[in-house]
Specification:
By secondary structure, this protein is α+β, with helices and mostly antiparallel strands. It has helices at 25-33, 51-58, 71-82, 102-106, 113-122, 146-161, 165-179, 239-249; strands at 8-12, 41-45, 64-69, 91-96, 125-133, 136-138, 141-145, 184-190, 195-200, 202-206, 210-211, 215-216, 228-233, 260-265, 267-272, 278-280, 283-284, 289-302. The chain has two domains: 8-123, Probable inorganic polyphosphate/atp-NAD kinase, domain 1 (Rossmann fold, 3-Layer(aba) Sandwich); 141-297, Sandwich (Tumour Suppressor Smad4), CATH 2.60.200. It is built from eight helices and 18 strands. The protein binds adenosine-5'-triphosphate (ATP). It holds the Pfam family DAGK_cat.
């Protein structure tokens, strides 16, 4: 079987999903070695947080970078690849073995690793847009406030309990909803228009539709439409109403609520009066001032389809 992959590097995060990912590396490597031309495939394990950025940025003579891990390792590899000139940017492929795997879901990669490898081997590269917030790139999600607090809380909770996925996000979600329903004052300028002041409980800027282990916060977000979809939940929202909206968001049914504002943008400037909890692709982000811009069709990914159900 021939693929269009060329020289292929697998970057594997052995600590993803509380270390369960480590046991998958040999399985994936064995499977792919058997299907790719001799000497065209090698594996590198990450040794520390941030390592995948360096590996992806510095890989020489590589045409395709595959990652094995969660949204964090996808985020890091994408940042490494985006630091390279566009004409020397390998294609990205994802084998999901993380806890949330929102990006893999958005590009239609199955979560079972053998199926993921078969799917990747059968598909051609497709271009996706990449977002940038200050000096960081992101492929799926950027959010501030309650939902970011939930995403960050899941990391702590997962280490304690070993739980993962939607169940974990639900557990963190209800805890944050009951105890940290905070409001953040913001000033927002969309596409160089007028600056508008507002208050938010959650503020999401999505490239793809998912965050938080499959919550469809912006159901219409498309990875290849050259624009961000925004979802802003405005106060006042009581605890019961917030819990209801949270459950609705699992299937993207929250968007018609009167407290929820949906927007589209290709660039935005966002200032908060105090530092909110913030995440991008599930990784913590710090600060109060955020410039967000779009890089249309900047990265090629191995994807059978976009925005899988
Ligand atoms: N060898 C390593 N040692 C410690 N941390 C690492 C190592 N390699 C990567 N990391 C860090 O692990 C974190 C989590 O990685 P990843 O997202 O792949 O798994 P996950 O958290 O289980 O999945 P998800 O993000 O989908 O919930 C990232 O912040 C990454 O920087």
């Amino acid at each position: 079987m021939t693929t269009s992959w060329g020289n292929t590097l697998l970057i594997a995060n052995p600590v993803a999903q509380n270390g369960r990912s480590a046991s998958l590396v040999d399985r994936v490597a064995g499977l792919l070695r058997g299907r790719l031309p001799r000497d065209s495939f090698r594996v590198e394990l990450t040794k520390r947080a941030g390592h995948a950025v360096d590996i992806a940025r510095e890989a020489q003579g590589v045409d395709t970078v595959l990652v094995l891990g969660g949204d964090g390792i996808v985020h890091e590899a994408a940042n490494g690849l985006m630091a390279r000139p566009a004409d020397d940017r390998p294609v990205l492929g994802v084998i999901a073995s993380g806890s949330g795997n929102d990006f893999a879901k958005a590009i239609g990669i199955p979560f079972e690793v053998e199926q993921a490898c078969e799917t990747l081997l059968a598909c051609e590269p497709r271009s996706i847009d990449v977002g940038q917030v200050n000096d960081r790139f992101f492929v799926e999600t950027l959010s501030f406030g309650l939902d970011a607090a939930i995403a960050l809380d899941t990391v702590v909770r997962r280490k304690k309990t070993g739980r993962t996925g939607t169940a974990l996000y639900m557990e963190s979600g209800f805890d944050q909803l009951l105890h940290h329903l905070d409001t953040f004052d913001y000033a927002l300028r969309v596409d160089n228009g007028e600056t508008k002041l507002g208050q938010s409980i959650t503020f999401a800027v999505q490239n793809g539709p998912y965050y938080g282990g499959g919550f469809k916060v912006c159901p219409d977000a498309q990875l290849d439409d050259g624009a961000f979809d925004l979802c802003i939940a405005h106060p006042p929202i009581g605890v019961l109403r917030a819990c209801w909206l949270f459950l609705q968001a699992k299937d993207g049914r929250h968007t018609k609520s009167r407290q929820v504002e949906m927007l589209r943008a290709t660039s935005l400037h966002l200032e908060f009066s105090e530092e909110p909890p913030a995440q991008t692709d599930g990784e913590r982000l710090r600060g109060t001032s955020f410039d967000v811009r779009m890089h249309p069709s900047a990265l090629r990914v191995l994807a059978p389809r976009f925005n899988a159900e």
